[in-house]
Amino acid sequence: MFAGENGLQGDPRLKAISDAIRVVPHFPKPGIMFQDITTLLLDHKTFKDTVDIFIDRYRDMAISVVAGVEARGFIFGPSIALAIGAKFVPLRKPKKLPGEVISEEYVLEYGNDCLEIHIGAIKHGERAIIIDDLVATGGTLSAAITLLERVGAEVVECACVIGLPEFKGRLGLNGKPLYILVEPRQQTT
Q: The Phosphoribosyltransferase domain covers which part of the protein (predicted)?
């Protein structure tokens, strides 16, 4: 579900968020129009508005875990977790977490990857959201859902700043809802 279709129609914050994202053509490979959120992070007000929209959505949903997908989910997740009184759990690339972990492999648009989580980071039955900057094919979020469910979490929803138009109207991933703030911009700035 896109934020603009769910109570935020005409919200000027969504246009500012979209406008703050730089498009970098042919990165990391030819044909990819990379949605660069680093320019959004340089705009204090727009960055805060982005986080605030997520906080407003999740504040009263009894969320106890905000799981952030490496690396850009780490930018938004901790602030959301602090504001709603939840813990932040990083979902990392292989060999980045010390101690005991479990892993989930997945296929990307341009290769394979893997996510890991610490064993014991989540208690059985905890309500979780998963946050990342962008959903493209859904492979990363699907792997994150599977990983969290393997450790006993109840995944309530996935949330992304940017979602490809193909996701518009879809129910979600692995049967889980997907909340997206804006669609990707096509032109460069």
A: 55-163
